[in-house]
Amino acid sequence: MNQTRRSLLLGAAASIIAAPGFAQSFGSRSMRIVVPFSAAGPTDFIARLFVQQFAEEIGMPVIVENRPGASGNLGTQHVIDSDPDGMTLVHTTAAMQSINPMMYPSARFHPSRDLVPVALTAAMPNVLVVHPNSGVKTIDDLVRKGKQPGAQLTFATFGPGSSPHVYASILRKATGISAIAVPYKGSGNAINDVLAGNIDFIFDSMTTAASHVRSGKLLGLAITSNERSALLPNVPTLKETKYGELDLKFWFTLQVHAKTPKDMIERLRTASAKAVKNKTYIDGLLSRGAEPFYVEPSQLSAFVEKDTQRWTAAAQSIGIKPE
Hints:
Belongs to the UPF0065 (bug) family. The chain is an alpha/beta fold. It has helices spanning 12-18, 20-26, 42-58, 73-81, 94-98, 100-103, 111-114, 139-146, 163-175, 187-195, 206-215, 262-276, 279-287, 300-317; strands at residues 5-8, 31-35, 62-66, 88-93, 115-123, 126-130, 153-157, 179-183, 202-205, 219-223, 251-257. It has two domains: 5-123 and 250-317, 3-Layer(aba) Sandwich (D-Maltodextrin-Binding Protein, domain 2); 126-246, 3-Layer(aba) Sandwich (D-Maltodextrin-Binding Protein, domain 2). Helix 9 links the parallel strand 7 and strand 8 (179-183).
C-alpha cells in the first residue's frame, strides 16, 4: 500500500459499540486527516500516533493522507475545498497557522478565517546543536564566536519561516551575532552538513537531533522547551540561559473547515481530547522527542489565536517576507 496514503483501521468493531454516533451518522465512510507535508516528518508521525487512539474514540476508520507542497498550502487548500461535514481534517503546525499567511499573501485561504481548531496534538522542541570540534561548548561561546571581528557564522534552515529559521534569526537579532541562513529542503540534508562541519549551527527538531547528541556526534547547547527533556537531560533549556526570549512553543494542531456544523466540531473536540490524553499516545510522543500539549476544548480557539499572534510577531521581527 502507498506509504503516503495508508489507512489505519483500528479498533473498529469494539469502538463502534462504545461510540456509535459517528458511525450511525456517516455509515461506512472513513474519516480523513490530511497531513500537508511529506511522510515520516514530525507532522506526519504525530498524526499517525494520534489516529490510533482517535479511531477508537470515534468508532470508525481514519485515513492519514499526505498532500505536501507549497509549505503546506496545497494540502490545507484541499481540506478547505472539501465538504464542510467534519469528515476531512488537516493536521498542521504553528508555522502554517502564523507564518504562511505572511509568506503567501495571495493564497486562497487564511487559516484563522477558514479553519477552526479541534485539538492541539503535541509540541516539538528544537535543539540548538553544533559540531563537537567547533570549539563551542555553550550558547555563550557561540555568541562570542559570532561577534568576533570578521566572523560570519552559518546556520541551517528548512527554508524561510521554518522553525530552525525563526529560532536562529531571533537569536541573531537578540545577540547581534554575524550569521547567515543556509536553506535546505529538509532536516536530513541540513543535519548532514552540520555533522560534516560545513555549517556552524542549527536549531533542529528533537526527533532528528537527539540521537546525534546522545552519540556524541553533535553537541547540544540548548533546548526550546520549558523543561529539560528526558532524552537529553544534560542539555539546558533556553530559560536556563539568558536567551529566554526565544521561548516559542512549536505546536501541532488538528483543524477542520470553519463551516463545519458546531455540533460536529464539539464531537470531534471531545473525541480528540480523550485521544491526546491516552497514556499510550503520550508515551509514543515522548519516545520520539515530542511533548504532550493539552489545551481544554473550551480554550482551544483563544489559545490558537493568541499564540498565532506571538509567532506572527516573531516572524515580523526577523523580516519574513512573501515568497
